[in-house]
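Worked example 3. Consider a protein that binds zinc ion.
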Amino acid sequence: MSEDAYLACKPIDATTAAVLMTKIRASVVEADSGCLEWTGALNKKGYGITWLSKSSGNLRVHRVAYVAAKGEIPRGLVIDHLCRNRRCCNPEHMEVVTLSENSRRSAQTFCRRGHPLTGRNAVPDPRGGRSCRECRNIAARKKWAEGAHLRRAAISPQEQWGMK
Ligand SMILES: [Zn+2]
Ligand SMILES: [Zn+2]
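Given these inputs, the predicted complex is written out as structure tokens:
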């Protein structure tokens, strides 16, 4: 986030956040990743937005969720989505960092497991970032292996009905 974009973010106090949380909860679904994804309105950058009243202006949903769970965001600091999912409002997936740390992280060329996020390994992410092909493959293999375990454990309908 640029300095200008940061300054455009209104500070959110705990009372406002608490009031908005009741409204927000109704539009959040849990994804397999553990992300709590906002299903309501998004701004141009893909961040969820909400508002207290027509005159209050837009507030970013993830910031509201963070303030409600962990307290007000100290001035000069921004929220970094550790999961890289801008729609996510799971406070456990966020970290409060300085602006410069935030830009350093978004310029990162390695995924969290240390695979290079360049060339063929960098898959453009619908959320606007880059995701790691190697990590996706690891996740897919894991899912398949879990499925195989379930397939082995399943008994046939014939066995179930005592036909064998
Ligand atoms: Zn998340
Ligand atoms: Zn990776």
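Take a moment to read the result before moving on. Residues 133-153 form the longest helix (21 residues). The mean pLDDT is 84.
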